[in-house]
Design goal:
- The protein is of the alpha+beta class and 173 residues long.
- Helix content is 24%, strand content 34%.
- It contains four helices and seven strands, in the order E-H-H-E-E-E-H-E-H-E-E.
- It has helices at residues 28-35, 52-58, 101-118, 133-141, and strands at residues 18-22, 64-68, 71-80, 88-95, 123-129, 145-156, 159-169.
- Strands 1-2-3-4-5-7-6 form a seven-stranded mixed beta sheet, sandwiched between helices.
- Helix 3 packs across helix 4.
- The chain is globular and about 40 Å long.
- The chain starts with 17 loop residues before the first strand and ends with a strand.
């Protein structure tokens, strides 16, 4: 990804230089620390209860370690949705709890820019649990289309909870 830090941005709104690389064994310790955060919902709705072997199973060949100014800040992965020829994808995106909220939108824009450079995107979906305020706030702030909630697919704090679906659609080229 390219550097996008803005010299004129106020300090509290400053943006980092983003980079990403494929997950590798060398990233193991840093990635395990991310999952110790109870709000790090990357491919799971219970990150801080997973044993190491289960966390490592969540990290596929598609997983990228997202870095802000060289420090690990989150993970993302892209999966086909539907046929491979449909150009529809599901993005799993998670930043650690300490990340400023405006970083979410900026990271998303950079990820989308990089994805669109390499492949055609018609539809990109993201999903967040109903009990994930950071993920839901990001999706709404980014202007993603809220498509609805699949109710009762998990439990959280003793209650059945759903998954909220969002998307961004581009016109076919």
């Amino acid at each position: 990804m390219t550097s996008i830090a803005l010299a004129t941005a106020p300090a509290e709104r400053a943006l980092p230089r983003w980079s990403a690389r494929a997950y590798a064994d060398a990233d193991r310790a840093e990635v395990l620390v991310l999952f110790a955060d109870p709000g790090f919902f990357f491919r799971t709705d219970r990150p801080d209860t997973r044993p190491e072997w289960e966390i490592l199973q969540l990290l596929g060949d598609d997983t990228r370690v997202l870095r802000a100014d060289g420090e690990p800040i989150g993970l993302y992965a892209l999966e086909h949705e539907g046929s491979e020829h449909g150009c529809h994808y599901l993005l799993h995106l998670r930043l650690r709890s300490g990340a400023p909220p405006h970083w979410w939108c900026d990271a998303y824009r950079e990820i989308v820019r990089a994805l669109r450079w390499r492949r055609e995107l018609v539809r990109l979906s993201v999903r967040f649990p109903e009990f994930d305020p950071a993920g839901l706030a990001f999706a709404r702030e980014a202007g993603l289309t809220e498509e609805g909630t699949l109710a009762g697919v998990t439990t959280h704090e003793g209650r059945r909870r759903g998954t909220v679906f969002f998307s961004q659609v581009w016109a076919e080229s």
